[in-house]
Amino acid sequence: MSVKKFKICDPLYDYIYLEEDEIKIINHFIFQRLRYLRQLGFSDQAFPSGTHNRYTHSLGVCHLAGQAFDSIFNKNKWSLSSKKIENFRKLVRVSALLHDVGHGPLSHSSECLMPSLSQLGLEKYLKDKTDRQARHEDYSLKFIMEKEGLYDILKENGIEPSAVAQLLHFDFSDETNFFSTEGLDFLPLLRQIISSEFDVDRMDYLYRDSLSCGVKYGLIDFAWLISHFDSYTHEGKVFLAIASEALYTLESLILGRQHMRLIVYFHHKSASYNQMLKNYSKNCNWRLPTDILEYARFTDSQLFEILRNDSKTNEWAKRIVEKNPYLRLYEAVYFKQNLKTRDDITFLKQKLENQNINFILIDSKKHSIKPSKSLPMSLTVYLKNKALNTFYNIEESLAFLNLPSRTLKRIYVCPEDFSKAKNVLKNIL
To answer: Which of 142, 153, 177, 268 suits 339 as a labelling partner, its CA being 20 to 30 A distant?
Structure first.
C-alpha cells in the first residue's frame, strides 16, 4: 500500500514532502505553537526580514534528515530488514521535526527566564540529577515523554516516545536501546544526523537564516555535503562519516557558522537586547511555566505583554519595549595571547565606573570556531578516504580548528550617557 504524501512549498527546497503520520504530529497544537516563536529572537532589530519562525525551520530539518538518512543507508548494505530501515527513517524524521519543540518565546533569547531543572520534574528521565537552569532541550523531553504533551500522538502513529527522547536528549536515562540490531548500535549515527558538528539542523538554520536576513555567510552547498554522508563502524557502534571529497564544503560549513554567529547572531544590536532581557530576568519575580500546557501557550506575544506590564517598574523591560537599548561604545577582538587588548577593556571599564556611567559588558566566548563541548565525545564524526577505505577523526583533518580561539568583547552604555562615555573613550585612546 502506498504511503500518502503531502507537499509543502518552501523557499529553500522548493517542496518538502511529508507523510500522513508526520502531518498528524505537525497539526497538534503543541507543534503549531512553533509558528509563534521567532527563530532568531531579537535579530530583527538588526535584520528586519529575519522574522521567520521555528515552525518552518523544523519542517526543513525533517526534510534534510530524510535526505541524509537515505544518502547513508543507500551506500551501506547492512543485513537489516526493510521494516527496520523504515522504522529508523521514521524515527529520524520525526525526531528532526521535534528537535526544537521545547523552545520558549524568542527561541534562545528567553532561556534566561526558564526555571530550574528540578522544577520541571524530569529526574526520572535523566542520568545526571544535578540541578541547573532548564534549557529548551529539557522542555522538549517533557513534551515528548508526558501524556499532556506529545506522548499519545506519537504512540498513536506507531512512534515510540522513548526512542525519540534517546535521539534528542543526550542525558536521557532509558536503557532500552531501540537502535541495536544485528550486533550493531545505530544510535550514534542516527543522533549525529540531527545533533553533531555537521548535522542537518545547522544546515537548515544557516541556509534559512542567511536568506531571511539577506546575508550570504550561510549559503553552503548542502546538497553536495549530504550526498557524501556515509558511515563508520567501530567496536559495534555505527558513526557518521563524510567522504573526503566534501572536505572543503565541511570547512565552508564551519566557517559559515562562525561568521553567522559573529555577524548575525551576535550582532551588536540583537546582543544588546539579549543582555537586557538577561538583566530583566535577574530583576523580575517570575519564570516560564513548568506546567506543560501553560508553557505550550506561552509565545512571543505573551512575553512582550508581560514586558509591557513590567515596563512601568523595571528599567530593562522598559528599554526593550520602547526600543531604547544600551548602545555599543567599544568593541575589541583578541586572541588568548593578546592580553593587552583584554587589559584595555579592563582599563575602560574602570574609567566608566569612575565617571558613574552605566555600562554592560558582553563577550562572544560562546562563539568559538572550536567544536561544541556540549556534544559527547562518543559522537565523533569521521572523515572517509574512499580510495584507501580508511577513516580519521574529522577534527584531526580540519587543521584550522586548532587556530587560537578568537574572542569579541563589547562595552555598551545607556544612551543617556553615550556622549559622556564617548569623551571618556576619546581621552584614553
So the answer is: 268
- Whole-prediction pTM value? 0.94
pLDDT tens over the chain, length 429 residues: 456 789 999 999 999 999 999 999 999 999 999 999 999 999 999 999 999 999 999 999 999 999 999 999 999 889 999 999 999 999 999 999 999 999 999 999 999 999 999 999 999 999 998 999 999 999 999 999 999 999 999 999 999 999 999 999 999 987 778 999 999 999 999 999 999 989 999 999 999 999 999 999 999 999 999 999 999 999 999 999 999 999 999 989 988 998 999 899 999 999 999 999 999 999 999 999 999 999 999 999 999 999 999 999 999 999 999 999 999 999 987 766 555 666 788 889 999 999 999 999 998 765 555 555 455 555 689 999 988 889 988 877 776 666 666 778 899 999 999 999 999 998 886
How many other C-beta atoms can be found within 10 angstroms of the C-beta atom of residue 180?
13
**Cα separations in angstroms, 237 against 3, 10, 127, 296:** 31, 35, 21, 37
In the numeric block, the cell 521535534 is attached to: 98
Three cell numbers at 67? 535526505
List of E strands, 120-159? none
**Could you give the residue ranges of the DSSP H alpha helices within 169-219?**
187-194, 200-213
Q: How far apart are CA 57 and CA 35, in angstroms?
A: 10
Cell match 536515562: residue?
173
CA–CA dist 226, 233 (Å, integer): 19
Please give the Cα distance from 337 to 112 (Å, whole number).
Answer: 31
What count of Cα atoms within 13 Å lies in the side-chain half-sphere of residue 298?
Answer: 22
* Cα three-residue angle 139-205-335, rounded to 5 degrees: 95
The DSSP code for 396 is: H
